[in-house]
Design brief:
Largest sheet: 7 strands, parallel
CATH architecture of the largest domain: 3-Layer(aba) Sandwich
Helix content: 40-55%
CATH superfamily of the largest domain: Glycogen Phosphorylase B
Strand content: 5-15%
Mean pLDDT: 94
CATH class of the largest domain: Alpha Beta
Number of strands: 13
Radius of gyration: 22 Å
Length: 406
């Protein structure tokens, strides 16, 4: 009988605790981490806690993984540490995510016997893996973080333009170093692969997209649906989300309310910033804060919006809305990672007039909105299931010599 391979040893590093899957990075990290555990790997997880509820998530992960090291760091301390980069000449991002206890844990996990794989999500965590041994190192960039800072610089005032521009330049240099040191560099879409090739010449990345939990993001019916309700979902202190939804309320919402006096906008997501909280004073706008789960809120809406002006990669909010059977009005920035999405279900609009018109079209015709949403849900289920992404991941790891025990 063939010998059963031993369980592969994987060191898994992510910025945040990779659970629960309630924001973009946690959705990605949890679904790949869970896959590794289910395939029988022995996984050691290194991450940083940033809020009190993370302690429960760490306990949950410890019940499934070989070891979890997750030091707590407050946002205030992280920001103060980031300023060290101004003195050391490094990107401000790196000291924000640097912690001695986590450095010591990664060294311990990698010596004297190197793990089969170090899997790193987000370039800021690659600093832990550069100087330790491993049979293979995988850098899941998803998208280049340096380009996010480049976008911020392009839209900032003089001081912000200098700070963000500095971060974009220095972080790109670090990403270049990481890409050349690791065995595989992964991006989330063909658009990101093209950008990567432009910015980091001579390193060929592979595309590993996000997926959608289509069982969870499945409509429970139209009983609570309101034909003139739009929904925006996301973590509501994240600047691209704050910028996008505030722009929509300012530039598009007055005209929609004038045409549809009963129109409603649901802003659903945790940690709303003061700018977002203030939107609740606008007629027809509800700001929920954290909710136990988003599917019941999707089922109240007729249309989802993704008016993100600062965005790259694959937007989970768009895929989840489509999976829930809602048509989506999105900027080209938020839609660019999706590839050939059905135009019947996804309207791309980049200015106020086009965005307003696209939402109004589905507000005015509920039957069309439902048919469009059904087309989107069918496409997501055919194209974006997590099982397909896990198969791509397994093929990638097989090429690095990883064998699963089952």
């Amino acid at each position: 009988m063939p010998e059963t391979p031993r369980p592969p040893r994987i060191v898994f590093l992510s910025q945040r605790v990779p659970y629960p899957p309630d924001r973009g990075d946690r959705i990605t990290t949890w679904n790949f981490l869970r896959h590794f555990v289910q395939r029988g790997a022995e996984v050691a997880v290194g991450c940083l806690q940033e809020e009190p509820r993370d302690a429960d998530a760490v306990d949950f992960l410890r019940a499934q993984c070989r070891e979890v090291i997750a030091p707590r760091r407050s946002p205030r301390v992280a920001r103060a540490l980031g300023l060290r980069g101004l003195l050391t000449g490094e990107p401000l991002t790196l000291p924000v995510f640097r912690h001695r206890a986590l450095q010591a844990a990664v060294r311990r996990w990698c010596t004297p016997t190197p793990p089969d794989v170090i899997w790193v999500y987000s370039s800021s965590m690659a600093q832990y893996a550069l100087d330790v041994p491993a049979r293979a190192k995988v850098m899941q960039f998803a998208e280049l973080d340096s380009d996010k800072w480049r976008q911020y610089a392009a839209n900032a005032g003089p001081l912000g333009r200098w700070i963000y521009g500095r971060e974009a330049r220095l972080l790109l240099a670090f990403e270049d170093r990481v890409a050349r040191a690791f065995d595989r560099s992964l991006v989330v879409s063909e658009v990101e692969r093209d950008l990567f090739r432009q910015r980091i010449a001579g390193v060929e990345p592979e595309v590993l997209p996000n997926g959608v939990d289509v069982g969870h993001f499945q409509s429970r019916g139209d009983g609570d649906r309101h034909a003139r309700t739009a929904i925006f979902t996301g973590v509501m202190d994240y600047e691209p989300n704050v910028d996008g939804v505030c722009w929509f309320v300012d530039a598009c919402w007055p005209a929609l309310r004038e045409r549809f006096p009963d129109a409603q906008l649901l802003v659903v997501g945790s940690r709303p910033s003061p700018r977002v909280t203030a939107l609740a004073r606008v007629s027809g706008v509800t700001v929920t804060g954290r909710v136990p789960e988003t599917p019941p809120w999707f089922d109240r809406a007729a249309v989802a919006i993704a008016p993100l002006r600062l965005a790259r990669g694959v937007q989970n909010k768009v895929l989840e809305a489509l999976s829930m059977g809602l048509p989506v009005v999105s900027t080209s920035h938020a839609a660019q990672g999706l590839g050939p999405a059905p135009s019947a279900a996804l309207a791309v609009a980049d200015d106020a007039a086009a965005t307003t018109a696209a939402v109004a079209r589905w507000f005015a015709d509920p039957a069309l909105a439902r048919a469009s949403g059904t087309a989107g849900a069918t496409w997501v289920r055919q194209t974006w299931r997590w099982e397909a992404m896990h198969a791509l991941c397994d093929a990638l790891l097989a090429g690095l010599g990883v064998r699963w025990p089952h």
